[in-house]
Structures are given as C-alpha cells and as structure tokens.
Amino acid sequence: MNAPPRFRRLLECTPRGLYCPAGDFYIDPWHPVDRAVITHAHSDHARWGSQSYLATDSCRALLLLRLGSNIQLETLAYGQSTKIGSARVSLHPAGHVLGSSQVRIEVDGAVAVVSGDYKRQADPTCESWEPVPCHLYVTESTFGLPVFRWQETDHVIGDVLQWWAKNRAEKRTSVLLAYAVGKSQRLIAEILNVAGKQAAADLYVHGALVGPNNAYRTTGVELPDLPSAASMPRDHDWSGALILAPPSAQNSPWLDRFRDASIAMASGWMAIRGTRRRRAMDRGFVLSDHADWNDLKCSIEESNPEELWVTHGFAKTLARYQTELGRPSIAIDTRFAGDDEEAKA
Ligand SMILES: [Zn+2]
Ligand SMILES: [Zn+2]
Asked: Can you name the residues that pair with 175 across neighbouring β-strands?
C-alpha cells in the first residue's frame, strides 16, 4: 500500500494483512504469520495458525476458545506498552466486544492506530471506546453510510421486552437471533438490567453461546449461567421462554423443539428495509456492536489523524466523504468480513 514515506515503517497493507515493518508483526492477519497482534476474538480478525499472538488480558479467554488452548499467547493490560522490534505497541479499548482493542503503534514519534471493529454506545459487557490521537488511523466502515443511525440501547431493549411479553401472553416461545460473541452477552446483560435479575429464570441459550458466555464470566463480566435449550427435557414447556441463538440456528432442526416460536433478530442490518422480511423474521431489532455513521465521524475527528485508511463495508463511501472534508483518506483492501455478515445474508 502506498503509504507516505513517513508512515512507511509504521504500517503497510500486504497480502497477509496489515503489517508493521518496524516491529515485523501483523495485525489481525488473514494468513498464518510469525507474530500476530489481535484486535478481538471474532473469526475474521482472530485466525488460526500463527506462531505467536498478542492481545489484551480480557481477550484471553475468548481467544483461547476460538483458537485452542495451545496457541502461544501473550497479553497486555489496556494502555500497557511493549517494545516489538523498534515499534512501541499498546492496546486501547475499542468498545466492540469483551477484550477488543485499538492497536497503537509508535515508531520514531509517528503514531498509527488500527481500530479493529469498534462502537461508542455503552455496553455493560465490555470496556468503553477511548480516543487515541494519531497520525495514521485505520477505521472500519461496516455501517459507513448516513442511513445508519442507532437508537438509544434502552429504547431497543424496551422493544425487545415488549415483543417478549406479547409472545408470553400468547403462550408462544421467543427466539432472539444474535451474533454469538458480543451481541448475545450484551443482550442478556441489558435485558436483565431492565427486566430485573429474576427474568433470568425464563432465559435459555443455544449451545453455541455456552462457551462464549463462560469466557465472559471467567473474565469477570457479570452474566448468569444460562442453561442450553438442548439440555432441557424433550417435553419442557417453552411457552413464555426467551431463547438466544446465533443467526445460523434459524434454518436448523434445533428450532423444531419450539412448537410455536416467534423469531426475531438483533443486528445493525435490521435498519435496512426488507432485511427482516427477506429473512422471514417476525421482528427485527436494530442493535449493533459497530459504530454508526455519526459515531464513525466523531471517532475520526477525535483520533484526528493526518491520514485515514478505511476497511470493511462501505469503505469507499467513508473514504471519499473524509477526503472531501479535507482529510486524505483511502479505502484499503482487507479480508475482514464484518461480524454481522451472517445477519445481512
Ligand atoms: Zn468484530
Ligand atoms: Zn470486523
């Protein structure tokens, strides 16, 4: 990638991923490398096969769950710095999911920050995004279009609780589809915050959520140990229950155990008219672990880079917009899929 000369030792976009020449390491590489710095434990950012990994302390349990316990993993506290080659590296909260970080790289006084994925809405299950001023900022743009504007989380949770109450009154089962790492834990915590802890008695999860939930709990996030629906007796009465499941459960036989289920999904893509209908969903709740258009703008302003690189989703749109505002910006070619791709499909 054609970085200006003074950024050349800081960061390059290579066929294996974002690379720091001064430290000889990659950030979220999509091919195995010697040294990988990982922003967070989602599958498009944390890939198997590298010799060694560096991530935050609170990313550890999720990363071991994703990549296996025999990887060589070193962790840092947020804000703690380490020297890799001639680069100084530190990890700062990204607010995306538990343990997610923005990677700050400093070489000869020049600073690059790679944001990974991030959001700025409060989330009781992860650390809050912090601005990290830099010369070169790599931002995601999963929802980088002005149509994406998130509502207050409380409002969305209120809608979820209403939908659940209506189903309960009709003796139906509520199945809420959400990404298994991050979104599901955030939903559980937010639902219990509003509905009260006793509501946990009617909450169940799909088996795919058991591992991530445990990883959150071992890391110190307050979440109840919810039973997997598959572990319940075959004749269990599901009327009135709320079950969280990954989007892939929608077309699986797992769903058959609930005779009359109302299916909903929580995703940023639900903001697009027609997504819910195409997926044959009863309800769509707009809730994302990514920044919306305004929050992308604010985050870029607060990071205040001289140059911006944009990845994910609507990268070209955001890069063009920022260039017009007077900030040199380019869309870079990466293989990050976007966590909500499954929901978009
Ligand atoms: Zn992610
Ligand atoms: Zn991503």
From this structure: 243, 263
